[in-house]
Amino acid sequence: MCQVMDQMAGKTLGRLRRLPEIECLFPKTVKKALSQLEKHNGLASVIAGGTDLINCMKRRDIIPKYIIDLKGIAALNFIEKDKNGKLGLRIGAMTTLSEILESSLIREVYPILTDAVSVLANPQIRNTATMVGNLCNALPSADSAPPLIVLQAKLKIVGLAKERTILVEDFFKGPRETILGPCELVTEIMIPPPVGYGVYLKHMLRAEGDLAMVGVAVYLTLDSKKEICRNAKIALGAVAPTPMRAIKAEDALKGKPLNDDVIETVARIASEEAKPIDDIRSSAEYRREIVRALTKRAIKQSIKKA
Length: 306
Ligand SMILES: Cc1cc2nc3c(=O)[nH]c(=O)nc-3n(C[C@H](O)[C@H](O)[C@H](O)COP(=O)(O)OP(=O)(O)OC[C@H]3O[C@@H](n4cnc5c(N)ncnc54)[C@H](O)[C@@H]3O)c2cc1C
What we know:
Layout (H helix, E strand, L loop, with lengths): L1 H14 L7 E3 L4 H10 L4 E4 L5 H6 L7 E4 L9 E3 L7 E4 L4 H6 L1 H6 L1 H8 L4 H6 L2 H7 L7 H6 L3 E5 L4 E5 L4 E3 L2 E2 L6 E7 L5 E8 L7 E11 L6 E9 L6 E2 L1 H7 L6 H14 L10 H22 L1
Flavin-adenine dinucleotide (FAD) binds next to strand 2, helix 3, helix 8 and strand 10.
C-alpha cells in the first residue's frame, strides 16, 4: 500500500516538478523585444498575460530558455479610434481582455467583440490575458477569432527588418500554429469601420469559463428595409483545425430575402462546411448540429440588432 502511495505521490510530484531555470527579459520598447527575439532565436518565448504560455510550460509542451515579457511596453496597451479614418479601431497587443470588455467605445461600435470577450474564460483570466495572446495561441476554439474574422480585422506583425499586415482569417495554419515568424511580434489588431450588425454565440459543455465546443459569429449588412441581406460574413470556431469562414453559407445568404427558409438553408450549409472531429468535449456529429442551431440563431439575432 505504502509503495502504491509513494508511486502515486511520485507521479503527482513528477507532474509538478520544477521547471529548469529560465531567464526573464523585460524590454521597454518593441524594438528591444525584437532584438532580444533575434538574439535568442528559437530559445525565447514571448509572454503577454501568460494564461496560455505558463500552462504550456507546466505541461512541458514548450520550455524556453528565455521569456520576453511584453508587459513593460506601455506603447502596446491602447484602444484607439484610427486617426486617419481608414481603419475603425486599433487594439494594442498588451490590452487585456478586461480592458476590452469594459471599453464603452467597443461596446457601442463593435458589440460583437464585447459578446465574445464576456464569454471568454473568467474575470481573473481576463484581467491579465490579452486578445492578441488568444490569437497567437491559435487554438481552434479561440473565442476572439470568429468575431474578428467576420469584422475583417487585420493584425500588424513586426520584425526588425519589415512590417506586414494580415487578415485574422489568414493568420492561422493549424492547431497552435500561425504564420508568425520566430522573430516577429503582433503589435496590434486593426478593425475596419463597422458596416453591419452581428453576434457571437458560444456553446460550452459547462456554464462558464469553459472552452467553446462550437463558436459562431455572424455579421450582416442589410438593405434599407431590412428585408434583403446585402452582405454576410459567417465564421466558425472549434469545428476545424483553425477558426474558419463558412463561405458557401455566406454566399447562400447574400442578396437573399431574410425569411425562415433561407435562414434554415444557410444554417444547414454552414454545418456541412464545418470540419469537426470527435473529441472529449463532443462528437463531430453533435458539433455539426450545434453549428446549424447557432448559425440560425445568430442570423436571427443579427437581424434584430439591425
Ligand atoms: C482557466 C482558463 C480558462 C480559459 N478559457 C478560455 C475561453 O473560454 N476561451 C478562450 O478562447 N481561451 C480561454 N483560455 C485561454 C487563454 O486564457 C486565452 O487564450 C488568452 O487570451 C491568452 O492570452 P495571454 O495574454 O494570456 O497569452 P500568453 O499566454 O501570454 O501567450 C499565448 C501565446 O501567444 C504568444 N504571444 C502573446 N502575445 C504575443 C505577441 N504580441 N506577439 C507574438 N506572440 C505573442 C505567446 O508567445 C504564447 O505562445 C483559458 C485559459 C485558462 C487558464
